[in-house]
Structure formats: structure tokens, C-alpha cells
Design brief:
The chain is mainly α. The protein has helices at residues 17-33, 38-43, 45-53, 69-82.
Length: 87
């Protein structure tokens, strides 16, 4: 999931897609905030350069799409509960 700018997670019900997405988002957030990872900072420098030029320091963005509103609610509620995502 962290090797490409776009990743697709699909599969039948009950295979752990939501759990995987929560763990993936948590890992990405940890990478965004860990300044001891020079390689991640190097890979991520393009976005940060454009933000720095504007005087801003913002983390990257993550877009999660689901096939239903109920599935989206489930992902967001798990992120808030398990990953300390502010709501």
C-alpha cells in the first residue's frame, strides 16, 4: 500500500479490508509525523516543498472510497476509535 501513489483494496466480505485500511492509514500517519525517517521524508519532499513555499506544513491527504455510506461510516468510526483520528 505504501509503494504506489494509488492503491486499491478489494475482496469479498469478511476478509479484513476495513481492518487493513485502518492499519494502513495509521502507518501512513505515523510516517508523516516521524522525523527520524529520512527516506520517507525524501520521498515525501515534493508535496512538502510546495507547502513550505506557501509557509504551510501540512500532512499528505488520503482518500478512502467505499461502496456504501454504511461502509464509509464503519471505516471512519474505526479510525476515530483505533487510530486517534480527530473528529
Amino acid at each position: 500500500g505504501l509503494q504506489r501513489p494509488f492503491s486499491l483494496v478489494q475482496g469479498p466480505p469478511g476478509t479484513g479490508k476495513t481492518t487493513f485500511l485502518v492499519h494502513l492509514v495509521t502507518a501512513i500517519m505515523n510516517l508523516e509525523t516521524d522525523t527520524t525517517l529520512p527516506r520517507w521524508n525524501q520521498v515525501n519532499s515534493k508535496n512538502r516543498r510546495s507547502n513550505r513555499a506557501q509557509g504551510q506544513q501540512q500532512p499528505g491527504r488520503i482518500l478512502l472510497c467505499t461502496p456504501s455510506n454504511h461502509a464509509a461510516d464503519e471505516v471512519v468510526s474505526r479510525l476515530v476509535r483505533d487510530a486517534n483520528i480527530p473528529h
